[in-house]
Amino acid sequence: TVTGPITVCEGAEVQMLADVPGTWSVADCAGCMEASGLFEPATGATGSYEVTFTPESFCPVDSTVTVNVIPGVGISADNVPPSLCAGTEEFQFNTDAPGGAWTADCGGCMTNAGLFAPPSAGYGDVAISYTVSDGLCSDSASWVVEVLPVLEGTVETIPDLCEGSVFNFDVLLDAGIPAEYASSSSGVWSSTACPDCITNANSGVFAANEPGVIDLVFTFNAACSEPIVATVNVGESVNATISAVPTLCESEDPVVLQAV
């Protein structure tokens, strides 16, 4: 006796059974049947197939059953990214197999329709799942999306500088950014008003090469970030050289000294 489903979803696998030892075969579907009776039609191999079982006997009598392979609902494409910024208010997940249900391990951060709210999820990895069914066939997929904090901050100290001086600027990250993200943050310093004033773009070394109000910009090396913008006042250098002093006699009246 041969038993097994007569309807199989495309891309699925089913186990055919027999009550005696024997050999399985399928007409017009090379590689679809294993010796154990596992029938696995390939994606795209829809239609009707004759599954034959030949018992181990001196007088074997074949048993044949027709199996119908119907189109499945396989998920083959999606728009789920590996990460999202916590500042993104909403993101709509989609696949090429619509009509299913989405779930996530972050409470109410996502609707069944796949509308995801990163601010409600919290920082870190979020497990996302999607299941779709047409009543006969079904498929599911899962992903992990990392919700990243938006790196923001201020320039820690902004002193008034004199022309010709050198200062090392530092960034102070906003409170609330987890340590594992803060410790690995990096970026570069720049200035449109005085590009040459930035003598080390990575460490923030600033040379006050010219007077005026100079802009400073620190750009994080991270997609989820906001540039830090500040200005520094550079005062013009003062020449305090004393003008040449003439030779004076001890008895002369006092002389007012002049600076250049």
How are the secondary structure elements laid out?
Blueprint: E1 2-3, E2 7-9, E3 14-15, E4 17-18, E5 22-26, E6 38-39, E7 47-55, E8 63-70, E9 83-85, E10 91-92, E11 101-104, E12 115-116, H1 118-121, E13 124-133, E14 138-148, E15 153-155, E16 161-162, E17 166-168, E18 171-173, H2 179-182, E19 187-190, E20 198-200, E21 205-207, E22 212-220, E23 228-235
Parallel strand pairs: 2-8, 9-14, 16-23
Antiparallel strand pairs: 1-4, 3-6, 5-7, 7-8, 10-12, 11-13, 13-14, 15-18, 17-21, 19-22, 20-21, 22-23
Task: Report on this structure.
This protein has 260 residues and is mainly β. It is 3% helix and 40% strand. The protein has 2 helices and 23 strands.
Features:
260 residues; mainly beta; 4-stranded mixed sheet; 23 strands; rod-shaped
What oligomeric state best describes the polypeptide chains here?
A: single chain
Largest sheet: 4 strands, mixed
DSSP summary: helix tally? 2
Poorly predicted residue ranges: none
Strand order of the largest sheet: 2-8-7-5
Give the tally of β-strands: 23
Question: What series of H and E elements makes up the topology?
Answer: EEEEEEEEEEEEHEEEEEEHEEEEE
Proportion of residues in helical segments: under 10%
Task: Report how far the terminal alpha carbons are from each other.
Answer: 115 Å
Give the gist of this structure.
The protein is mostly beta strands and 260 residues long. The chain has two helices and 23 strands.
